């Protein structure tokens, strides 16, 4: 009730003051993260035993948000300079742990290409693993919250975790290479907003599943029925997300503010055009096809 009005207000203001489409299109997509997570969590509270089905949209959208943040940074830098030419004049960026033994990527086109590649793989991997999780759940072999070798859950967690780590690693590497150029748009706060929502929800869910697997939740609530335990663990995750999305909405309001784009002298597109541009995913399709 508190998160949605804050998010919808910010989204509406960006659409009203749609003066920089190349940047604001991606900001609006990022801002939709909070309403989607909040509504998803509320539906999970109402229908706890069907939460895996409503979680599918949230899980796919988080990958989409990371991709949009990367493109937002690229468009910002390209509007100020020729990014690849500027990178070619810089010394190579050394890899971070645990990839510090790898040779640095060649600065310029290759560096941008590899960073985009690392982020786009998550945009593809996450929907694919979500689809397989959905199929496994229908087949009765998903085993949510069970860390056993004969169910799909631990394998899906490992694949998603590794894919997400690679995406975030490439994002950090890209920031290190363009730290000075990105300073005016204060990327740290924006990055932390996205990272906090994605990581907290993911690892929070993993932690709750570990507590279920080790019997902590059962002891705390004094229950033994598997179906009841699953319902409580799902409700606990969704309840925490509902609270966290209010905090995220406030953080997004300040980090992705519409105020820098208020310019009465600039040519503005209509709200309808801004709304339609937000749903046009041809740029995502083009990048995935390219990579």
Automatic annotation (TrEMBL):
Keywords: Membrane, Transmembrane, Transmembrane helix. It is found in: Membrane. The keyword Transmembrane applies. Its main location: membrane. The chain crosses the membrane at residues 30-49, 124-143, 155-175, 196-217. GO terms for cellular component: membrane. It holds the Pfam family Solute_trans_a. It is a multi-pass membrane protein. This is Transmembrane protein 184C. The lineage of its organism: Eukaryota, Metazoa, Ecdysozoa, Arthropoda, Hexapoda.
């Amino acid at each position: 009730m508190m998160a949605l009005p804050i998010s919808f207000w910010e989204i509406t203001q960006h659409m009203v003051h749609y003066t920089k489409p190349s940047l604001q299109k991606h900001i609006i997509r990022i801002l939709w993260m909070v309403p989607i997570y909040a509504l998803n969590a509320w539906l999970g509270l109402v229908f706890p035993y069907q939460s895996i089905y409503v979680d599918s949209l949230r899980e796919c959208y988080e990958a989409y948000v990371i991709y949009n943040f990367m493109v937002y940074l690229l468009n910002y830098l390209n509007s100020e300079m020729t990014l690849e030419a500027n990178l070619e004049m810089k010394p190579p960026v050394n890899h971070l742990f645990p990839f510090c033994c790898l040779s640095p990527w060649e600065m310029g086109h290759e560096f941008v290409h590899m960073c985009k590649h690392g982020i786009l793989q998550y945009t593809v991997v996450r929907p694919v693993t979500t689809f397989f999780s959905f199929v496994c759940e229908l087949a009765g072999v998903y085993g949510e919250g069970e860390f056993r070798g004969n169910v799909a859950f631990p394998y899906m967690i490992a694949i998603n975790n590794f894919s997400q780590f690679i995406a975030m690693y490439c994002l950090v590497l890209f920031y290190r290479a363009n730290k000075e150029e990105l300073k005016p748009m204060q990327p740290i706060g924006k990055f932390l907003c996205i990272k906090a929502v994605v990581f907290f929800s993911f690892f929070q869910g993993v932690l709750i599943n570990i507590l279920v697997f080790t019997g902590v939740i059962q002891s705390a609530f004094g229950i033994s029925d598997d179906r009841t335990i699953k319902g409580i663990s799902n409700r606990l995750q969704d309840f925490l997300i509902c609270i966290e999305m209010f905090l995220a909405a406030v953080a997004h309001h300040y980090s992705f503010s519409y105020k820098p784009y208020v310019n009465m002298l600039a040519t503005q597109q209509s709200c309808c055009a801004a709304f339609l541009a937000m749903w046009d995913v041809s740029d995502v399709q083009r990048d995935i096809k390219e990579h």
